[in-house]
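In the design runs reported in the main text, the only information available to the sequence generator was the tokenized backbone. The following block is the verbatim input for one such run; it is reproduced so that readers can re-run the procedure and compare outputs position by position.
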């Protein structure tokens, strides 16, 4: 169906704290946030630090409960779920977090990590754990022979690919990427973005993509919502928001963006960026080399373009 909405949030509010002996008022982190994610597309939530992006994402992922408002997934109200209904929700909405190393169990092999969501839901691993893991690793550009390795034996970009493989294991309706590429070196970042784009094209994945880096958002999102002080202040298609922003706040945010190199943007628009290789001139992420050996952890945190 054209333009089918996979997730819809309406009037989300989140208050933190408040009360106590001196009866402090709660802090409102998110105020009246509504959005829709069309199936097979990406909605990016952008904004400065503290604008409420992650809190909104965490409500969408059912990791924090909204103070008010509703969330629908494929037409079903999923705002307040408990027990088995919540477990079913977890197989439909997956999260890829910012720091791949802290979100992967350091004592578990890739095979244990990517099959964990299925085991948690007491679901059979189709075709057996080894083959299932190998297939997922290939889909995200990792060597299937490395399925017994631990997270620390991978680079930062490779570890994030494991996080993506884990998300894909349950065949989710929505993948929430919460600053999923922010911790990566900028060239590896480009390759992970290419991977996310390729997976979307191949499998019709729908993403809620949280980022403070507008250059990244421009490469991945079809739709953009700009947040400031807990509210969505501007929303539209990527081209509307980037090329014809209505709000002064958005213009200021865009003015602060380091321009992505013109040749990258031209190559991306022309579809000339090879998903396996990333942007022109990028260093190669060892994850794209099936034969790439073990690496000491290199979760490069530099190069964030805040
Ligand atoms: N658990 C919490 N308790 C109290 N305040 C919180 C909590 N989580 C977030 N906040 C506050 O809510 C506001 C929004 O935070 P949030 O993390 O959603 O913003 P953000 O746009 O994602 O920023 P960042 O990119 O820095 O994570 C901030 O002022 C933050 O301090």
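Verbatim output:
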């Amino acid at each position: 169906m054209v333009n089918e909405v996979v997730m819809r949030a309406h009037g989300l509010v989140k208050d933190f704290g408040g009360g106590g002996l001196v009866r402090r008022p709660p802090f409102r982190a998110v105020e009246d946030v509504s959005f829709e994610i069309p199936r097979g597309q990406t909605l990016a939530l952008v904004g400065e630090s503290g604008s409420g992006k992650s809190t909104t994402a965490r409500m969408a992922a059912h990791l924090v409960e909204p103070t008010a408002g509703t969330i629908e997934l494929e037409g079903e109200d999923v705002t307040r779920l408990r027990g088995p209904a919540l477990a079913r929700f977890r197989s439909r909405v997956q999260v890829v977090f910012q720091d791949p190393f802290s979100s992967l169990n350091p004592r578990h092999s890739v095979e244990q990590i990517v099959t964990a969501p299925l085991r948690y839901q007491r679901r059979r691993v189709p075709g057996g754990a080894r083959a299932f893991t190998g297939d997922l690793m290939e889909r995200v550009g990792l060597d299937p022979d490395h399925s017994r390795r631990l997270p620390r034996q991978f680079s930062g970009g490779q570890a994030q690919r494991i996080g993506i493989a884990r998300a894909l294991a349950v065949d989710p309706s929505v993948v929430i990427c919460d600053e999923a590429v922010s911790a990566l070196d900028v060239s590896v970042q480009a390759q992970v973005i290419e991977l996310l784009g390729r997976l979307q094209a191949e499998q019709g994945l729908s993403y809620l993509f949280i980022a403070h880096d507008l250059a990244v958002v421009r490469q991945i999102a079809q739709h953009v919502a700009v947040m400031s002080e807990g509210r969505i202040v501007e929303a539209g298609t990527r081209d509307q928001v980037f090329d014809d922003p209505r709000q002064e706040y958005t213009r200021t945010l865009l003015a602060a963006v380091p321009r992505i190199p013109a040749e990258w943007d031209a190559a991306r628009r022309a579809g000339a960026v090879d998903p396996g290789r990333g942007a022109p001139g990028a260093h190669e992420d060892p994850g794209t080399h099936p034969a790439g050996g073990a690496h000491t952890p290199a979760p490069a945190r530099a190069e964030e373009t805040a």
